[in-house]
Amino acid sequence: MAFYVKVWLFVLAVLIWAEPNPTTAEVFTVGDSVGWTTLNRPNYTAWAAGKTFRVGDTLLFKYHKEYHNVLVVKEADYEACKNSSALFEYHSGEDAVIIKEAGRHFYICGFSNHCQIGQKFDIKAIVSSAALSNPPANSPQSNAGGHLKATPSIADGTL
C-alpha cells in the first residue's frame, strides 16, 4: 500500500512539474506610464491591441479623479460613447479592475467629451489554465451582467 502511495505522489509531482507554462495573473497599467488621460491624446486602442488579457488579470487605471473616471459599459454604449448606463463606475484615481470572465470588455471615460476624443478601449479576455485552477477572489465586477455601480479602489483593499 505504501508503495502505491509513493508512486501516486511521484506521478502527481511529475504532472505538476510538467504543466506547460502555467500562467499567472498580470497587472496592466492602462496607458503604461501615461496613465488614463486625454493629455496628448494617447491611443488606448493601440495600447490594448499589443497585449493578451486573461481572466484573473487586473487593469490598473491611474488618473486625476477631478478630471476623469472609468466606466465599464456595454458594446453599444461604448460605440456611442454613452455614459448614462454604465455597468460599473470607478472614480478613485487609482482603480484596479479585475477581469472576471472571458469575452469582450469595454471601458470609457465618462467626463465631458473624453470618450469621443479617444479615451476608451475594449479588450478580449481569454481563459488561461491558471484562471481555471485558481479563480480570482470576488470583486464587484463578478456581476458584470448586472447594472451595479461600484467604486472599488486600491485604497478600499480590492486589489
TrEMBL record:
GO (cellular component) term, any one: plasma membrane
Keywords: Glycoprotein, Metal-binding, Signal
Ranges for region Disordered: 136-159
Keyword Transport: no
Gene3D superfamilies named in the record: Cupredoxins - blue copper proteins (2.60.40.420)
GO MF entry, a single one: metal ion binding
InterPro entries: Cupredoxin, Phytocyanin-like, Phytocyanin_dom
Domain Phytocyanin residues, every copy: 26-127
Pfam families named among the record's database cross-references: Cu_bind_like
Name of the protein described by the UniProt record: Phytocyanin domain-containing protein
